[in-house]
Design brief:
The structure is a homodimer. By secondary structure, chain A is an alpha+beta fold. Chain A has five helices and ten strands; from the N terminus they run αββββββαββαβαβα. In chain A, strand 2 (49-58) and strand 3 form a beta hairpin. The A-B interface holds A 40-41, 43, 45-49, 51, 61-70, 72-74, 78-85, 87, 111, 114-115, 118-120 and B 40-41, 43, 45-49, 51, 61-70, 72-74, 78-85, 87, 111, 114-115, 118-120.
C-alpha cells in the first residue's frame, strides 16, 4: 500500500494545512525555522541559469527574455550549524526496494566527498515516498555503494537505510529536524 | 592619477593575459585554484532569478522566456576552509577617500553578522580601484560603522582600511589569496 505525499500550492503559510508539499519546501521551511530561532544558517542555493538575452524595457528593470537552466555544480543546500560547515542535497524515490544511484550526479558525490575531507558534514536527505519516510544518509554510506558501482549494484537497498542511515521524523515545526541527527551522531562528545 | 582596471573577455584561460578582468572573476579564479589544489571549497552562488515563463520548444529542453533578477538574500560566496565556514561578498569603489555603506545591502550585513555569531568567518573583499588595492574587511569593522550609520557617517574612511583591514596582494596564481589572511589573523594558534 502506498501513502502518497500530497502536493499543494507552493505558497508558504504558517498553518499546517500544506504539510508534505514537497521535500524541498519542507526543508526550506525547516531552514526558516532554524534561522528564525537562531539555531543555524542554512540556505538553498538559487538554481543556476544561463542568461542568453536581456531586454531593458524600462530604466533599471532588466527583463531576461532567453535563458536556460544549467546543471548545478554542487549541492542545493549549505550553511553553518554550531560552527560546523553543513552541505547536503535532497532526493526522492518511489521505489520500495532500493535507491537508484542514477538519482545522484557524480559531481555531487565528488563535492560531498570533498566537503567531508575538508571537515564539513556532508549527506543526503532522502524521502522514500512509498514508505513516507525520510532518512539522513551520510556521504560515507553513499561512497560504499558508489565506489562499487562499476562492478556491482547500481542502487542502495532499503535495508541499508534501516541499518546505516538515520531516520528523520516528520513533524509540524520544524518539519524535518535533520540537525537533531547531527547533534546525536556528529557532535556528541 | 588613476590606475584603471582592464576589463577583457570573460573567457577563462590559463595564461595571464586577462589579469584583473573584474574583481568577481579574480575571486572565482582564486577559488578554482583553491579547489584544484585541495586547499578549500568555496563557490559563488548563482544569481537568483525569478522565472515567470518557460517554453518547451523541444523535449527535455526548457527555454526560459521571461524572468527577472532577484535581490540575493545572502552573500555571493561561501564554503569551507580548514573545517571553518567562510562567507563573504565582493565590492568595488572608485572613491579615494571612503567606502560608501550604501554599497552594502542591510540583509548582507545582517547575514554576515549572523554568520560570525554562529562561528563562521565573515568579511568583505573590497577593491579600491583608484589605488588598485584589495582589502579583506572583517565584519566587526563594518559593524562599527554600520551601527552608527543613522547618527553618523555613511562611509568607511580609507584610513580605517589601512589601520584595521588586511591588504590582499594581487598575484598571478592565486590572484587574490584571501585565505592567507585567514591563516594569519584567524587560525594562528
Amino acid at each position: 500500500m502506498k501513502y502518497p505525499i500530497k502536493r499543494k500550492s507552493s505558497t508558504i503559510t504558517t498553518n499546517y494545512s500544506n504539510l508534505g508539499m514537497t521535500l524541498e519546501s519542507d526543508i526550506e521551511l525547516t531552514n526558516e525555522y532554524y534561522l528564525a530561532n537562531g539555531i543555524a544558517i542554512i540556505h538553498k542555493k538559487p538554481t543556476p541559469v544561463q542568461v542568453v538575452n536581456v531586454d531593458y524595457p524600462a530604466r533599471n528593470k532588466a527583463k531576461i527574455t532567453e535563458a536556460y537552466y544549467k546543471t548545478p555544480s554542487t549541492t542545493d543546500f549549505n550553511g553553518i550549524y554550531k560552527s560546523r560547515y553543513i552541505d547536503f542535497d535532497a532526493k526522492e524515490t518511489k521505489s520500495k526496494t532500493s535507491f537508484p544511484l542514477r538519482n545522484i550526479h557524480s559531481h555531487q558525490v565528488e563535492h560531498l566527498k570533498n566537503i567531508s575531507k575538508h571537515g564539513g558534514i556532508a549527506f543526503l536527505i532522502i524521502n522514500w515516498k512509498s514508505y513516507n519516510k525520510y532518512f539522513f544518509l551520510p556521504i560515507d554510506v553513499i561512497l560504499k555503494y558508489w565506489d562499487n558501482k562499476k562492478d556491482g549494484r547500481k542502487s542502495i537497498p532499503y535495508q541499508e537505510f534501516l541499518d546505516n542511515a538515520y531516520e528523520i521524523k516528520f513533524n509540524y515545526n520544524p518539519r524535518l529536524d535533520y540537525l537533531k541527527i547531527i547533534d546525536e551522531y556528529y557532535l556528541k562528545d
